[in-house]
Amino acid sequence: xxxxxxxxxxxxxxxxxxxxxxxxxxxxxxxxxxxxxxxxxxxxxxxxxxxxxxxxxxxxxxxxxxxxxxxxxxxxxxxxxxxxxxxxxxxxxxxxxxxxxxxxxxxxxxxxxxxxxxxxxxxxxxxxxxxxxxxxxxxxxxxxxxxxxxxxxxxxxxxxxxxxxxxxxxxxxxxxxxxxxxxxxxxxxxxxxxxxxxxxxxxxxxxxxxxxxxxxxxxxxxxxxxxxxxxxxxxxxxxxxxxxxxxxxxxxxxxxxxxxxxxxxxxxxxxxxxxxxxxxxxxxxxxxxxxxxxxxxxxxxxxxxxxxxxxxxxxxxxxxxxxxxxxxxxxxxxxxxxxxxxxxxxxxxxxxxxxxxxxxxxxxxxxxxxxxxxxxxxxxxxxxxxxxxxxxxxxxxxxxxxxxxxxxxxxxxxxxxxxxxxxxxxxxxxxxxxxxxxxxxxxxxxxxxxxxxxxxxxxxxxxxxxxxxxxxxxxxxxxxxxxxxxxxxxxxxxxxxxxxxxxxxxxxxxxxxxxxxxxxxxxxxxxxxxxxxxxxxxxxxxxxxxxxxxxxxxxxxxxxxxxxxxxxxxxxxxxxxxxxxxxxxxxxxxxxxxxxxxxxxxxxxxxxxxxxxxxxxxxxxxxxxxxxxxxxxx
Amino acid sequence: xxxxxxxxxxxxxxxxxxxxxxxxxxxxxxxxxxxxxxxxxxxxxxxxxxxxxxxxxxxxxxxxxxxxxxxxxxxxxxxxxxxxxxxxxxxxxxxxxxxxxxxxxxxxxxxxxxxxxxxxxxxxxxxxxxxxxxxxxxxxxxxxxxxxxxxxxxxxx
Lengths: 634, 157
Known about the structure:
The complex is a heterodimer. Chain A is α+β, with helices and mostly antiparallel strands. Chain A has 18 helices and ten strands. In chain A, strand 9 and strand 10 form a beta hairpin. In chain A, helix 1 packs antiparallel against helix 9 and helix 11 runs parallel beside helix 13. Chains A and B meet through helix 1, helix 2, helix 3, helix 4 and helix 6 of A and helix 3 of B.
């Protein structure tokens, strides 16, 4: 049972190790080739040679275990290649600590002595195995591989101890790993020297594989390492589960009728196959948390980031929110720039930071730069993918924010333009009203001055009041309803002088509405319209009535006359429509937007025009706002 | 001085095979499996092979206390085949009654596997028998076995 278990475990581990070694070597070289074509700078190192020798030893060893022809040549080649691995390991340690080693010459001589001894013993062993040369004392040489491993472990540990380097966090972790692996290797080699054979014979192979992985992770910083580790963990878990299932179940499977066994196997495998994605997701999350210390999964990070940035109202706020959120997600200092220049390089680092570009319709709109992590965990492929995704999200949010800001600015500009247009219209209205009014009034006074000099005198005074009001309020946009009504009354008294007994006037103003602020000269045009198109068209008595009252949060001003009413299909913009009503309607649109308005209708006894204005600030405040608006306009 | 020392070491190394006496007995051999009624062990390297002109003697001495040893004596003419490496595993496994453990694969073989040598024989009563041995250094043993039995070694380099 124990033998069976050992055999199965060794098969599982061998499969895993073989796949790991093959995939790591292939991906390392593909990255290296890609770097060559992209013109990335290369460090001068023996690591490529180490990977090649590892691959060669693996292939030769595999061949020697499955092929019978050329056994001697295979054994010689395999032994020769395998003998290079311990010195190459030591060479990698030497290369790392080269600058900080005292007595560099001695170390170099020791290293090349180890190379020579390992290769010499391998050649002698190979020649002996092939029978080409029989050497006495060869039994001792048979222990040369274990001795070389022991020497590598001991010398590597001695190098680490002698090195004066005080490395960064990443370097410390790398040294710790290498130290542990060298120690284990030395122990295995010592055990093998003392007691050859046994399971400890295979351990150095896997320790070397671990050294390969650690070196790849810390030295080469391969971005896809996290994916490899996750897939590898999932693969070995699956391999162990399947092996255990078949080993435990085979006893019962063999008892089943022949037709049943395949069906039962499929039935056993189906749940495992269905559970695969779930298991992988859990393992992925566990590895992220335990090894890479990632706080969020990719989906959670996206959600968190969007929640953080979507509430930003300005670009500066978006920048600060994005920076804070990215710093939290990636556990390092982040820099976000909204500028079209080249991407910012992560500060305070060499090439171990990470950067991403913000793009909008193919044009660069900014960049994100992440500094290296303080805990030395490199940015791996999941980090790169997440940063690219967050950069795309940030680009969209930035685009949306800019669109919103543009739209708000445009609305403000439109409001401002409407305001300016209202002022211009007011001035135009005044300029338009005065000549007409003056002409009619002077005609009326001229008619009265001989027959009714007192009335003429009073009319002149009312006329003076009207012009005084016009001049006094010429710079004011807002007046109280009471002032406007008083102005309208003076105007009507002048008109009464003209029309005489024919014109009847009535005013009903709610005292509560008297102080409401309304745009200047918004009532008088309605009165003028009533006289011009209503009273003047009536034979006999004409009537103009003004009523003002509060209705909820609105001020309603109603002007009625007993004229013929509005013609059918009347429109403010129709040709021949009065300028007065159109002016008032457009000014109200400028001041109130769609909340206030002008409405007209035909009543049973004439025409009715309604002003419906929202009750805004008091007159004082309204004047202040108008003053500010003027100041803004320059 | 340095050159003289190098020369001396080189000469000593080259001349040693010429003056060394031929061996007839080897220890540090492990019994892996076969038809011999001895329980194999991964740590048991006490098997001894002695080649005489008229006999081949294998002495299995288990390291475990209270386990009796066993000696297999064969005449060279009883040996039907000699095999090496993977061929040895195959030949021994073909013999009826032979018990062999599963052989776990090694990834890189940094500490090299021992060489396997298979001896298939026919006992005095005509029954087939086989032993699979793991040997540290195989070159000299193979030469001696070939000379003693006059049989070729299948799969040998």
